[in-house]
């Protein structure tokens, strides 16, 4: 059994409460909508594959967006909300696992989580009111930035990181500002894993600490933001159910059984498909503008 410090225990209790509150709101919304929320086989497969890879450090938002757009299975304007709602419970499972097994200074973890939640709260208030074209533009540009960050890691343009498991002083302030921004960006469908991994490495932390910081940040911010998204109706219920139902088994398989794979080739593939998806999203936004103008 894990020896769980008191503050970690509090985090776990709060995560459980958030998971229950989110689930109650979501189930209520699904009941109100009635039948017709059954995911397709493709949407279920997307949930398993993306959360399996997310648990191993690839990330889920960019890959899910790419797979949705390949089959046009979710409208562009509903993708950000669907990602947050559908990946919420699988991410909470990841957070329980990685906060328990990866050592990170507790106040660095708590404060970065709070910063991400605040950023998501601010971001969700804007995104739920955005029109389709603005979401396409925002996702396209942010996906290009994410691809650039992943590429920088793969080509070793960024430092590999240090050995610290916590931050203080101005470095902690930088991390809090960064996590606030990353939390806000998640509301337009941009995953936080790559940015957080790069940020903690640049600040001299062990890159492994990105796992509890990222999983914890996302696990706390996603239920809060997703409740607003559900109430605004800005998500695809069937696709979100597919992500959740298959995503949780994908997380458990990756974290508890597989644990590690040779993922270098997969990361290069992710860079290629993310760039393709970003460009296609920007192209769709430009066509949307021409339709409006016409």
Structure description:
The protein is 76% helix and 0% strand. The protein is mainly alpha-helical. It has one domain (6-288). Helix 5 (88-101) packs antiparallel against helix 10 (210-232), helix 7 packs antiparallel against helix 12 (264-293) and helix 8 runs antiparallel to helix 9 (193-202). The relative contact order is 0.21.
Radius of gyration: 18 Å
Global shape? globular
Nearest-integer average pLDDT? 82
Helical percentage = over 70%
| Run of helices and strands | HHHHHHHHHHHH
Would you count the extended β strands for me? 0
Termini separation (Å)? 64 Å
Main β-sheet, in a few words? Answer: none
Task: Report low-confidence residues grouped into runs of 5 or more.
Answer: 290-294
Note the beta-strand portion: under 5%
Total separate domains: 1
Category from helices, strands and their pairing: mainly alpha
Number of DSSP helices?
12
Secondary structure layout plus pairing:
Blueprint: H1 6-33, H2 41-55, H3 61-71, H4 79-86, H5 88-101, H6 106-127, H7 132-154, H8 169-185, H9 193-202, H10 210-232, H11 237-258, H12 264-293
Helix pairs in contact: 1-5, 1-10, 2-3, 2-11, 3-12, 4-11, 5-10, 5-11, 6-8, 6-10, 7-12, 8-9, 9-10
Supply the key terms.
294 residues, disordered C terminus, globular, 0% strand
């Amino acid at each position: 059994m894990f020896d769980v410090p008191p503050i970690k225990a509090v985090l776990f209790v709060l995560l459980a409460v958030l998971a229950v509150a989110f689930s109650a709101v979501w189930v209520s919304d699904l009941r109100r909508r009635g039948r017709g929320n059954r995911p397709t086989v493709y949407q279920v497969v997307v949930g398993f594959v993306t959360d399996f890879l997310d648990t191993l450090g690839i990330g889920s938002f960019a890959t899910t967006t790419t797979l949705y757009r390949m089959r046009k299975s979710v409208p562009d304007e509903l993708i950000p909300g669907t990602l947050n709602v559908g990946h919420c419970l699988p991410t909470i499972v990841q957070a329980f696992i990685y906060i328990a097994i990866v050592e990170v200074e507790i106040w660095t973890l708590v404060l970065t989580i709070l910063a991400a939640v605040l950023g998501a709260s601010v971001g969700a208030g804007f995104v739920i009111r955005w029109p389709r074209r603005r979401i396409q533009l925002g996702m396209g540009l942010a996906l290009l930035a994410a691809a650039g960050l992943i590429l920088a890691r793969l080509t070793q343009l960024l430092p590999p990181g240090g050995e610290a498991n916590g931050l203080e002083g101005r470095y902690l302030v930088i991390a809090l500002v960064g996590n606030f921004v990353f939390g806000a960006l998640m509301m337009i469908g941009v995953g936080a894993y790559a940015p957080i991994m790069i940020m903690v490495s640049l600040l001299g932390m062990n890159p492994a600490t990105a796992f509890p910081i990222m999983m914890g940040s996302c696990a706390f911010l996603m239920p809060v933001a997703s409740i607003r998204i559900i109430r605004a109706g800005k998500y695809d219920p069937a696709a979100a159910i597919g992500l959740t139902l298959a995503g949780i088994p994908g997380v458990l398989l990756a974290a508890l059984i597989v644990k590690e794979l040779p993922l270098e080739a997969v990361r290069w593939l992710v860079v290629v498909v993310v760039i393709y998806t970003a460009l296609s999203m920007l192209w769709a936004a430009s066509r949307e503008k021409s339709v409006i103008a016409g």
